[in-house]
Amino acid sequence: MPIVKPTTGKVDAFVSVVAVLDENVSRATEFITDMHQVLSDNYTNYELVAVINGISPDQIPDIRDLLRVLPCVRVLRLSRKFSVDTAIFAGLESAIGDYVVNLTPELDPVGVVPDLVDLAMKGNDVIQGISLTPIGGSGVRKLGRRAFYGYNRRYLHVDIAPQATYLACLTRRAMNSLANASRSLRYLRHLIRHIGYRLTDYEYIPLDSSHRVRSLRNDVIKGLEMITSYSAHPLRFVTLIGVLTGVANLLYAFYVVILRLVSTDVVAGWTTTSLQLSATFFIFSIILAVQAEYIGRVLAETRREPVYFIMEEMESDTLIADLDRRNLSS
Known about the structure:
Layout: E1 11-21, H1 28-42, E2 43-52, H2 60-67, E3 73-78, H3 84-92, E4 99-103, H4 113-121, E5 126-131, H5 139-155, E6 164-171, H6 172-179, H7 188-194, E7 199-204, H8 216-230, H9 233-262, H10 270-303, E8 310-315
Parallel strand pairs: 1-2, 1-4, 2-3, 5-7
Antiparallel strand pairs: 3-8, 4-6, 5-6
Helix pairs in contact: 5-8, 9-10
């Protein structure tokens, strides 16, 4: 699709930007103002969808006042603090633009939006941000990341870049595919590569991210949730372990019977028996743990409960910059 620039110098496109405002955002009004300036300078029609997800309450009155001045801004206030991905999807599902950009206010520069939309207009359905800043952490954390991404690439057939961030741009058809994913657990960085649309990476240098380092425990839980939500491979793996364990125990039983028949001097081996029993029960415990994880996922999916709750929606007095433009999506 060629990039069309009217006489105003603006690109003829409807661009939506989604940003989650959480406890890490200390200057929400400044971000909204800067982001609005970028959108109004570059596009004939635009909207900024800000999702309040745990922001400090004293910033909300300032945001209300800003809505009286700036057009084309909508604010979704969630009822409580949800996960980052849940808050992102609350904004994405509300966005109506031809191109939808998601960015993190305190990490991603507002000036990257035109670059992302330009790449989308050149035929890419999904653009994912790739950080050029090395990811730190302990040796255990680095080893865990390498194992997680390697597992995804080999067994889930989803090649997620280790430096991937939440910065992303989606065309309308890619956005519709994400919105139609009927899952209670959705992860943006995984899904945008899972849907199979044409994807390209966008390398950039994020702002300071030292304050957003998650705990190792949270990383492990999130990794397990992602793997068990998108693949049955772990379940098949422990099934194979269970079958092999059963065969090994059957062979051991034959060994004991044959040894008893051919030998008259059999002494009970307490150590061997104890080790064999310990290994067997350990494997069974692992199998039960994985099965319990999947049962929990099935229970969450069958409940069909809303993934998030919007407590309040605030918006500018003017929501359409170009009143002659209409955006229809299926």
